[in-house]
């Protein structure tokens, strides 16, 4: 099954690293590295950049912020490294973090290095050589939502993360913060989202009674699957936006990515994961399973899903803004404006049909 394991490619133009300085640094900081360094880049993802570092037969992962203008709070390498350190011993889906550096003389950026988890990562379509029958898709869906609930249930204070976030007023800050970020990143070809932002502001739920660790980017293409058993999740990646907050907000953000088979043609066109295949649980089924496991009772999940779609549009718009203004030449970003437009339509449908 090696042919379906996620593999890196040659580094994109303009996103290279100083190989000689990095080799010296890593050999000084991580025991047991020998031989010459080899670097490749993972082509997927739209935010922090991910590289595979190889010394002989040992593989590591390096994460750094994107090149160009960026919001510091959105690409905090130290924060991402610290939550991995705190979770690694108790949450079996975290890669082991090795070293964090603020020394910009190495690669002209903050960065951290962690272990490489060898496995399958599902992108828009199943990789060639992999198939999932309906029962396997269902099992993977169930495991996916159960692990998210497991993360939310961790006693974050017991592992030193009591100051990792501010759960009081979390929903209010998220609505206000993403509204501001969206307005600041809006381009002439983007919808204004004002109706949706107003609705979110007026329909906020109260602070949750049991805040938890939330990943804030928990989606199927941030999950690593066992190559020998693709229904078995062995790792969770991309912890850059993790914090302490409302677990249902995290679930809503996750389900904004979860495109199901009976969604509109437009939603199916912008899907980034194969969750439309037969057997994958629907968003409603995922919510029901989560609520059953958590014991939470809510009248409606609409607020959380609308917020998730708005937040996803905000993330896409921030990235598209960089492309629109020539701060990145990655041509994948040009298409994000269509996702922003479609997400606005879908969020409005939910509000109107309440």
Task: Describe the structure in brief.
With 354 residues, the protein is an alpha+beta fold. The protein has helices spanning 19-29, 77-87, 104-107, 134-152, 170-185, 194-202, 247-256, 265-269, 283-294, 302-324, 336-352; strands spanning 37-41, 49-55, 58-64, 97-101, 111-115, 212-214, 223-226, 229-236, 243-245.
Q: Secondary-structure blueprint of this entry?
A:
Elements: H1 19-29, E1 37-41, E2 49-55, E3 58-64, H2 77-87, E4 97-101, H3 104-107, E5 111-115, H4 134-152, H5 170-185, H6 194-202, E6 212-214, E7 223-226, E8 229-236, E9 243-245, H7 247-256, H8 265-269, H9 283-294, H10 302-324, H11 336-352
Antiparallel strand pairs: 1-2, 2-3, 3-5, 4-5, 6-9, 7-8
Helix pairs in contact: 4-9, 5-10, 7-10, 10-11
Strand content: 5-15%
Helix percentage range: 25-40%
| Widest β-sheet, arrangement of strands | 1-2-3-5-4
Q: Tell me, what is the CATH class of the largest domain?
A: Alpha Beta
- SSE order in H/E notation? HEEEHEHEHHHEEEEHHHHH
**Total beta-strand segments:** 9
CATH architecture of the largest domain: Alpha-Beta Complex
Q: Could you walk me through the main structural features you see in this protein, from its secondary elements to its overall organization?
A:
- This protein is of the alpha+beta class and about 350 residues long.
- About 40% of the residues lie in helices and about 15% in strands.
- The strands form three sheets. Strands 1-2-3-5-4 form a five-stranded antiparallel beta sheet, sandwiched between helices.
- The longest helix has 23 residues, at about 300-325.
- About 35% of the residues are buried.
